[in-house]
Write a structure and sequence with these properties.
Elements: H1 6-11, E1 22-30, E2 36-41, E3 52-53, E4 56-58, H2 65-77, E5 83-96, E6 99-111, E7 125-131, H3 144-161
Parallel strand pairs: 1-6
Antiparallel strand pairs: 1-4, 2-3, 2-7, 5-6
Length: 162
């Protein structure tokens, strides 16, 4: 059996989620009062610049999914979570300008203090927007509708259990 590390793939110019399956964390940040955070992709984002998304980031080799979540929150939004709730995983398989994409995405609901949220990576994120899920900004990143549906289904299931 031949094992090729991600480091070798990166060295060969291979891209996560395109040339091999990527693993990511997606974090739907909220204020605890019904408003959710959406971020706009900046001019140096990997793809779909100018489109709104739910913050997410890749899991690095040797890093746990939860450690990746906390690292990405700090890097992208300069914030510590008040509460974290795992809501499941999904596969994101879609076509893009670069070809087929395939990601395994671990999704979280993350409560944060909106006054503490800041753009940590201005080249890849150039806007923040808070609103209820139903008022998500347009145009949306290819994966954002799936992220919203996952959260809506999770919140609906929680409500039904009460």
């Amino acid at each position: 059996m031949v094992v090729v590390s991600v480091v070798v793939w990166h060295t060969l110019g291979m891209k996560k989620g395109i040339d091999y399956i990527g693993v990511a964390v997606c974090f739907m940040c909220h204020d605890g009062k019904g408003n959710f955070l959406f971020t706009r992709r900046g001019p140096k984002a990997r793809d779909e610049q100018g489109k709104w998304e739910v913050p997410a980031g890749g899991v690095e080799v040797g890093e746990t999914v939860e450690a990746a979540l906390h690292r990405e929150l700090k890097e992208e939004l300069c914030v510590e979570p008040k509460a974290v709730e795992y809501i499941g995983y999904r596969e994101h398989i879609a076509e893009s300008e670069e070809g087929a994409r395939h990601w395994i995405v671990f999704s979280y609901l993350v409560e944060v203090d909106p006054s503490e949220v800041k753009i940590g990576e201005p080249d890849t994120c150039d806007g923040l927007h808070w609103s209820p899920l139903e008022e998500a900004p347009e145009p949306m990143h290819l994966a954002m509708r799936d992220s919203i549906i996952v959260v809506q289904n999770h919140l609906r299931a929680k409500t039904e259990l009460l």
